[in-house]
# Entry
Amino acid sequence: MAWGLLMAFWAVSVLFVIIPGADWAYAITAGLRHRSPVPAVLGMLAGHLLATLIVAAGVGTLVSRVPVVLTVMTILGALYLIWLGVGLLLHPATVPGAEAATGGSSPLRQAMKGLGISGLNPKVFLLFLALLPQFTDTGALWPVGVQMGTLGLLHIFNCAVVYLIVGFGARRVLSARPMAARVVTRLSGIAMVVIGVILVVEKIIH
# Structure
């Protein structure tokens, strides 16, 4: 692949990743509630990888032409975000380490939640579907599917860096501020609920 295309995609990808959303909200929450945000981030990255593989395999184009499938994905993802957001509002984070001392949720469960947040988010899927083909070259030596996979991995790398910074940053900055930690967690919960409601409303309107 041409370095120019890779660098252009990297710049666009970074712009998308640094915009706060449901992934940011979960990374912050994981940083505050658990020993480490790494399992949660790995789960979200797995969701992005799943979207990359689907689009790179060409299945994404087929799915995008079936409105019912996208509608179901949107509603499921929205309901999942709302459910997680309500959970955060009802049980805001305490000072880091408090939950870990009493057990907390397992790393696998944290990762599965992260996978659900990104894997069930139709915005992630549609982003790849709309973005990846724009940075491929049909005349290149690599097949288009391989090019898309490479671009997807580059995007996942950007996500990993940003989400880990957000998760560990939240833990470091708010670890000695229990009141602020609760406020940030509730704001994260509100963000998840709002995003979920917007997704549902968009489908109802359209």
About this structure: Residues 95-103 have pLDDT under 50 and may be disordered. The longest helix spans residues 144-174.
